[in-house]
Design brief:
With 179 residues, the chain is an all-alpha fold. The chain folds into two domains: 3-93; 97-173, no CATH class. It is 74% helix and 0% strand. Helix 4 packs antiparallel against helix 5 (122-139). It starts with a helix and ends in a 6-residue tail after the last helix.
Length: 179
């Protein structure tokens, strides 16, 4: 994909992210003005910093998009063509096995971070996540891949030893409490 197309698409993604952050910070400012906080000054509101960051992200994404469209006679049609090209490239990526494996791995990490940590004791969650991830990686990818995980016994042993080392390191050496 051409650098100009990448800049346009990345600018659109950053614009959406900045708009979301700015909108959520305005809601945060409204919630802080209600009881029990009753913060009515914007300068001390907890939503001020995210608002500034969101608006700066929107500004810089607009500058990135404008810079990528600079020098074109019909920038809106070029913008639309670039977005169509990127959507077709994304559609093609979902047919790629490596991309799908990466996406499944990211979803597994998301589930672990947002649903397992804090709801299940650390030992069980960490060992379960590591076993699930290593089993998934064992079967993902091409059949002749030389970088395969070992059998299930070695996977479970590796997960137990890894979780034990993390618990020992953080609880005994760093004196912290794990979730």
């Amino acid at each position: 994909m051409d650098e100009k197309i990448k800049d346009t698409v990345f600018g659109v993604v950053l614009f959406a992210l900045g708009s979301y952050v700015a909108a959520e910070s305005v809601l945060m400012i409204g919630r802080a003005a209600n009881p029990p906080l009753r913060i009515r000054q914007l300068s001390v509101s907890p939503g001020l910093f995210p608002l500034v960051l969101g608006l700066l992200l929107v500004l810089f994404s607009v500058l990135l998009i404008a810079g990528s469209l600079k020098g074109n006679e019909k920038p809106l049609s070029v913008f639309a063509d670039r977005l169509k090209t990127s959507f077709s490239a994304m559609r093609a990526a979902f047919g790629n096995n490596d991309f799908l494996s990466m996406l499944i791995g990211v979803v597994m990490m998301f589930v672990y971070c947002f649903f397992v940590v804090g709801n299940i004791p650390f030992w069980g969650g960490a060992v379960g996540f590591l076993v699930a991830m290593m089993v998934f990686l064992r079967f993902a990818g091409p059949a002749g891949c030389s970088a395969r995980a070992a059998n299930l016994g070695v996977i479970v042993l590796t997960a137990l030893v890894s979780a034990s080392l993390v618990v020992f390191l953080f609880e005994k050496i760093f004196k912290t409490v794990l979730p």
